[in-house]
């Protein structure tokens, strides 16, 4: 052990009280588009705290929440360049970088929320993380955060494909999602998360689609009062690390990072369920009308998007069968 490290270790209890940022060999900047207090942000911050403690100060961790480091697309580029070391991003944003993940981005590929969880908890979930890690994307995928189910929210009620006809609906920048909204009769428009609020306010878009916590915490509900439970997308959201940062970790540190990311996954799931229930109550209290579709009404959205599954799912026919077979 060199002199510098001995000194650091001796000073550790004191240093940890202040901040270990200056002392650590490895500094992790974590980018989040969601605000402080949001379930993944809380779980990721807890992961960071444990990382600092359990690495005995060799690793430092700083959360940059609320999108301060840019849109998710910009953050992915920064992570690839190791300007940011870690992030959690929607799988929608990973699709254009690692096309193989798009099988999870297909509309109605999961039967329901529980089905998605069973899939990501099993071998297919790990395979998909490995696909990201083994791609050219310079990312190491460590764990999955839950992002609930995504539903349409609009300025006027939507129960049928005809109701959605011509409505401009914001989606994430992924052709699969544009095709999905278009197949449902709407007009899919890609934009970054941070632009949705004012786009709804000014009428640039007529709606968007997301889970309840995002609808609430990003204040979109203020300008879109109808929430149609289509459940067309159920996207798990990977926690990724810059490959360059990962390669700077020694094997013990890598094991620690992976272990704590998996712990964060478990922690976030509990927080997610609690937050979703709270969000539902708050949204309803704020006057958002929840529109539950009859099985036939929902089937119309499923049938309309068959062409999207056929087109974008064609290379993954076997995998889609394996996903379907998961109980
Ligand atoms: C949320 C995801 C977030 C995405 C956002 C979006 O958690 O990562 O950025 O949707 O649609 O549900 O932009």
UniProtKB/TrEMBL annotation:
Pfam family membership, one: DctP
GO molecular function: carbohydrate binding
GO biological process: transmembrane transport
Signal peptide: 1-24
UniProt keyword annotations, A-Z: Signal
InterPro entries cross-referenced by the UniProt entry: DctP_fam, TRAP_DctP, TRAP_DctP_sf
GO annotations of cellular component type: outer membrane-bounded periplasmic space
NCBIfam families linked to this entry: dctP (TIGR00787), TRAP_S1 (NF037995)
Protein name (Swiss-Prot/TrEMBL): Solute-binding protein
Source organism of the structure: Pseudomonas graminis
Upper taxonomic lineage: Bacteria, Pseudomonadati, Pseudomonadota, Gammaproteobacteria, Pseudomonadales
């Amino acid at each position: 052990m060199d002199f510098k490290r001995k000194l650091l270790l001796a000073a550790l209890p004191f240093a940890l009280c202040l901040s270990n940022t200056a002392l650590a060999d490895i500094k992790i900047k974590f980018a989040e588009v969601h605000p402080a207090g949001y379930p993944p942000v809380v779980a990721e911050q807890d992961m960071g705290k444990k990382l600092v403690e359990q690495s005995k100060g060799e690793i430092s961790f700083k959360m940059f929440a609320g999108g301060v480091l840019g849109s998710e697309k910009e953050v992915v580029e920064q992570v690839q360049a190791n300007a940011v070391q870690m992030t959690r991003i929607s799988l929608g944003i990973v699709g254009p970088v690692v096309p193989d993940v798009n099988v999870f981005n297909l509309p109605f590929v999961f039967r329901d929320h529980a089905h998605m969880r069973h899939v990501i908890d099993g071998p297919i979930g790990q395979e998909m993380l490995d696909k990201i890690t083994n791609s050219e994307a310079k990312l190491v995928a460590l764990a999955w955060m839950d992002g609930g189910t995504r539903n349409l929210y609009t300025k006027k009620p939507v129960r049928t494909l005809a109701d959605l006809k011509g409505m401009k609906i914001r989606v994430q920048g992924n052709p699969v999602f544009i095709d999905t909204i278009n197949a449902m009769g709407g007009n899919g428009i890609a934009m970054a998360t941070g632009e949705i609020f004012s786009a709804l306010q000014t009428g640039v878009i007529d709606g968007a689609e997301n889970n309840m916590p995002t609808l609430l915490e990003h204040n979109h509900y203020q300008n879109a009062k109808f929430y149609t439970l289509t459940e067309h997308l159920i996207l798990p959201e990977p926690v990724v690390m810059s490959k360059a940062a990962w390669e700077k970790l020694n094997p013990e540190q890598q094991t620690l990072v992976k272990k704590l990311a998996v712990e964060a996954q478990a922690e976030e799931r509990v927080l997610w369920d609690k937050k979703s229930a709270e969000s539902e109550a708050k949204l309803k209290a704020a006057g958002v009308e929840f529109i539950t579709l009859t099985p036939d009404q929902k089937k119309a959205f499923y049938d309309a998007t068959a062409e999207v599954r056929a087109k974008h799912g064609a290379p993954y026919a076997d995998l889609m069968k394996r996903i379907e077979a998961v109980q």
